[in-house]
Amino acid sequence: MKKTNLLAIFTLAATPAFLHAETTSYSDVVGYSKENLPAGQHFFSPSFLKAPVYTGTGTLSGNVVSGISVLGGLGLTTFTDRANFPTHYLEITSGSYAGTYYDISSNTATSVVLAETPNVAAAGSVSVVIRPHVTLGDVIKADSGIGEYSDSIAVYGTTGDFTAYYFAGGVVTADDFATEMSHVPVSPGKGVGINTGASLDVTTTGVVRKGDLKVPVYAGAVNVVGAFNPSSATKLTGLALATELGPYSDSVVLYNSTGNLGLIAIAYSDGADVTDDNFNAYTSVTSPSVSTKGSMLINPGATKYITLPGAVQ
Amino acid sequence: MMNQKNKVLAVALAGLISSAIVSDSRASIVITIASPNSSSGLIVKSNLATLNTTGFVRIGKLTTATPDVTKNLPTFANYQYWNSIFVDVNSSAGGGGTSPSTWNFNSSGALTGSSTGINASTFPANTQMWVWAFNFGSLTSGSVGGIPTFTSTDFGPGKITEWAIMSADEWIAPADNLAKSLVINQVGSDTVSRLIAGTDLGANIAMIPEPSSMGLVFAAFATAVFKRKRSRI
Description:
- The structure holds 2 protein chains of 2 kinds.
- Chain A is mainly beta.
- Among the domains of chain A are: 54-132; 208-308, no CATH class.
- Chain A has 3 helices and 26 strands.
- In chain A, the strands form 7 sheets. A 6-stranded antiparallel β-barrel of chain A has the order 5-6-9-8-7-10. A 5-stranded antiparallel beta sheet of chain A has the order 3-16-12-13-14, with no helix packed on it. In chain A, strands 19-25-21-22-23 form a 5-stranded antiparallel beta sheet.
- The two termini of chain A are 27 Å apart.
- Chain B has one domain.
- Chain B has helices at residues 4-22, 76-85, 214-232; strands at residues 28-34, 43-44, 56-62, 86-88, 114-119, 130-134, 162-166, 179-183, 195-197, 199-200, 205-206, 208-209.
- In chain B, the strands form 3 sheets. In chain B, strands 3, 4, 6, 7, 9 and 12 form a 6-stranded antiparallel beta sheet that branches. A 3-stranded mixed beta sheet of chain B has the order 5-1-8, with no helix packed on it. Chain B has a 3-stranded mixed beta sheet with strand order 2-11-10, with no helix packed on it.
- Chain B is globular and about 45 Å long.
- Chain A binds chain B through residues 41, 149-154, 156, 160-164, 166, 168, 175-178, 193-195, 197, 220, 222, 248-249, 251, 253, 261, 263, 266, 268, 270, 277-279, 297, 299, and chain B through 2, 7, 10-11, 13-15, 17-18, 21-22, 26-28, 30, 32, 34, 36, 40, 102, 112-114, 116-117, 125, 170, 174-175, 177-181, 183, 186.
């Protein structure tokens, strides 16, 4: 049983993050979603984001955004005995690159260094939002019913690789069941693979996504992409897949959410419409959907962006 | 727009691609073993001592659904039988996955760690997974392989004298691009036991010894049981 609560009109005006913003802020809708995943295997994406720590403008040059004002460390985690990961990411919210996001490698009080360089065309004055990453520790909690030592969580890389994490001692761990790895990020719009021996309740909370997000998908990778609508399923025809998928080649695979990864549909594009695997166009009525407890697997021939609309536009 | 001929070709191609996606030969799985401490179950020697940096485990599948369970004692002849039907996740002839050093028993007798990059077409979803544990030898960690091949001279005092062969209902390979942890204390709870060689101690699994040592182990167990009963009087 899915439970979703949206606590509308929760303003961030009183938060410290807002006090550092240079442009007019907006009201963020927050809420929580509790999804029951039956025993078995799933691809799952969190529906929510974390509240921003900075909203304003900056100047992008190369992989540096300057002219902003931020407090605290926004770079990688600083463990000495385990892998480190980005803690925050910057999203461009203006211009033709609006919705693209980049992990932050490091920062000063007035600038951030991005882990990759945005397209040169995005350079110049840009509006940006900086948010903390949602992490495995945010998604998988002790009260979710996850089986210690036995249940696994897969986090996917960009080349077809993935890393498995487990749960022991009340926290997400590496495969030694001792090294805590709760800090592993789940990038916005992306999902994880879950293999659970018993029913699992995944509760996610945070800010409802507002506006389109450009999610990178990679050729040869396991691209688990969700939808940001926490309250209802998202039709494939409601996305921009018709124009973003390579015609007759890039595919989207949808599985059911019953735990057996039963195939719901393999969808393509004919350049104008999202189609089934016989290239018959789906309509808004016949289109399969990304459920609130599921994800789609996207198989592109080349690395590209897929646009995910926010739950709020 | 596509003409009809091209559409037919595209549909045929899509069919091939679809089949590939659903059973992607590039897809991989991860298999992990969970025997990290006494709360999760250890594999121990037949005298209940921990395997202190001696021995290792092989993890894989069997090529038969009905193995000869009478060949359960650790002799070279039985090794040859099991070796012929065992497909390792971390051999080049098997799953092609990585070989973790942590599949050698550590100083606490524990086992953890994963083999990654296992070919999902060799280990499709729901494949029954097996663990074969030895009290001697070691796995050479690396990208693939490193599994020792034993000869008749490797069996006997100071070498292979004990082993365990086991599976559990829960030990099934995951779907493509997912992971599965094989938890040792899940062994023995099945309706039909898959503990072919070994003794279920509840918390741990004990190896079984070579035939010549069976009497001594039986005596050790009998003594332990007798002392427990005496202590309850």
